[in-house]
Amino acid sequence: VQLVESGGGLVQPGGSLRLSCVASGFTFSNYYMSWYRRTPGEERELVAGISGAGSFPYYSEFVKGRFTISRDNYKNTVTLQMNSLEPEDTAMYHCNAKWRGDDFWGQGTQVTVSS
After folding, report:
1. How much is the average pLDDT of 58-87?
2. Separation of alpha carbons 70 and 74, rounded Å
3. Averaged pLDDT for residues 82-97
4. For residues 30 and 53, what is the distance between their CA atoms, to the nearest angstrom?
Protein backbone atom coordinates (compact mmCIF):
# COMPACT_ATOMS: atom_id res chain seq x y z
CA VAL A 1 0.00 0.00 0.00
CA GLN A 2 1.29 3.44 -0.92
CA LEU A 3 -0.03 6.97 -0.79
CA VAL A 4 2.34 9.45 -2.41
CA GLU A 5 1.62 13.17 -2.06
CA SER A 6 3.04 15.90 -4.23
CA GLY A 7 2.43 19.52 -5.11
CA GLY A 8 3.47 21.29 -1.95
CA GLY A 9 5.84 24.24 -1.87
CA LEU A 10 6.29 27.87 -0.97
CA VAL A 11 3.60 30.29 -2.07
CA GLN A 12 2.73 33.88 -1.25
CA PRO A 13 -0.44 34.78 0.64
CA GLY A 14 -3.38 34.80 -1.74
CA GLY A 15 -1.73 32.25 -4.01
CA SER A 16 -2.76 28.75 -5.02
CA LEU A 17 -1.38 25.25 -4.89
CA ARG A 18 -2.70 21.93 -6.11
CA LEU A 19 -1.87 18.87 -4.05
CA SER A 20 -2.12 15.37 -5.47
CA CYS A 21 -2.09 11.97 -3.83
CA VAL A 22 -1.54 8.87 -5.92
CA ALA A 23 -2.64 5.60 -4.34
CA SER A 24 -1.59 2.04 -5.04
CA GLY A 25 -1.91 -1.37 -3.47
CA PHE A 26 -5.61 -1.26 -2.61
CA THR A 27 -9.00 -0.85 -4.27
CA PHE A 28 -9.03 2.92 -4.35
CA SER A 29 -12.70 3.39 -5.20
CA ASN A 30 -13.77 1.66 -1.96
CA TYR A 31 -11.98 4.13 0.25
CA TYR A 32 -13.00 7.42 1.77
CA MET A 33 -10.13 9.78 0.97
CA SER A 34 -9.15 12.76 3.08
CA TRP A 35 -6.53 15.43 3.43
CA TYR A 36 -5.24 16.26 6.89
CA ARG A 37 -2.68 18.77 7.97
CA ARG A 38 -0.36 19.17 10.93
CA THR A 39 1.88 21.92 12.19
CA PRO A 40 4.64 21.33 14.76
CA GLY A 41 3.23 21.13 18.24
CA GLU A 42 -0.36 21.00 17.06
CA GLU A 43 -2.88 18.22 16.66
CA ARG A 44 -3.49 16.86 13.20
CA GLU A 45 -6.66 18.35 11.74
CA LEU A 46 -8.99 17.23 9.01
CA VAL A 47 -9.01 19.56 6.02
CA ALA A 48 -11.33 17.86 3.52
CA GLY A 49 -12.72 14.46 2.62
CA ILE A 50 -14.56 12.75 -0.20
CA SER A 51 -16.46 9.48 -0.53
CA GLY A 52 -15.47 6.60 -2.77
CA ALA A 53 -17.90 7.64 -5.47
CA GLY A 54 -16.69 11.22 -5.36
CA SER A 55 -19.84 12.57 -3.80
CA PHE A 56 -20.54 14.41 -0.55
CA PRO A 57 -17.29 16.32 -0.19
CA TYR A 58 -16.59 17.55 3.32
CA TYR A 59 -14.67 20.69 4.19
CA SER A 60 -13.57 22.02 7.53
CA GLU A 61 -14.78 25.50 8.33
CA PHE A 62 -11.36 27.05 7.96
CA VAL A 63 -11.02 26.02 4.28
CA LYS A 64 -14.61 26.11 3.10
CA GLY A 65 -14.91 28.22 -0.03
CA ARG A 66 -11.16 28.21 -0.64
CA PHE A 67 -10.22 24.55 -1.09
CA THR A 68 -11.73 21.91 -3.38
CA ILE A 69 -11.25 18.17 -3.05
CA SER A 70 -11.76 15.83 -5.98
CA ARG A 71 -10.84 12.30 -7.00
CA ASP A 72 -10.25 10.28 -10.13
CA ASN A 73 -10.94 6.60 -9.53
CA TYR A 74 -9.43 5.65 -12.88
CA LYS A 75 -6.12 7.27 -11.98
CA ASN A 76 -6.29 6.38 -8.26
CA THR A 77 -5.72 10.01 -7.43
CA VAL A 78 -7.21 12.47 -4.99
CA THR A 79 -6.51 16.17 -5.44
CA LEU A 80 -6.79 19.21 -3.21
CA GLN A 81 -7.01 22.52 -5.01
CA MET A 82 -6.07 25.27 -2.56
CA ASN A 83 -6.85 28.88 -3.42
CA SER A 84 -6.57 32.12 -1.46
CA LEU A 85 -3.92 30.61 0.72
CA GLU A 86 -3.18 32.22 4.06
CA PRO A 87 -0.12 31.98 6.32
CA GLU A 88 -2.28 29.94 8.70
CA ASP A 89 -2.50 27.23 6.03
CA THR A 90 1.20 26.50 6.46
CA ALA A 91 1.50 22.85 7.46
CA MET A 92 2.48 19.37 6.39
CA TYR A 93 -0.43 17.99 4.38
CA HIS A 94 -1.12 14.25 4.49
CA CYS A 95 -3.33 12.06 2.36
CA ASN A 96 -5.45 9.46 4.17
CA ALA A 97 -7.47 6.45 3.00
CA LYS A 98 -10.09 4.79 5.20
CA TRP A 99 -12.39 1.83 4.66
CA ARG A 100 -13.64 -0.60 7.26
CA GLY A 101 -10.61 -1.34 9.43
CA ASP A 102 -8.04 0.10 7.05
CA ASP A 103 -6.42 3.42 7.76
CA PHE A 104 -3.56 4.35 5.41
CA TRP A 105 -1.38 7.47 5.46
CA GLY A 106 1.05 9.12 3.12
CA GLN A 107 4.32 10.75 4.14
CA GLY A 108 3.03 14.23 3.46
CA THR A 109 3.91 17.28 1.42
CA GLN A 110 4.91 20.60 2.99
CA VAL A 111 2.92 23.74 2.23
CA THR A 112 4.40 27.06 3.30
CA VAL A 113 2.50 30.30 2.80
CA SER A 114 4.74 33.30 3.32
CA SER A 115 5.69 36.56 1.72
Report:
1. 97
2. 13
3. 97
4. 8
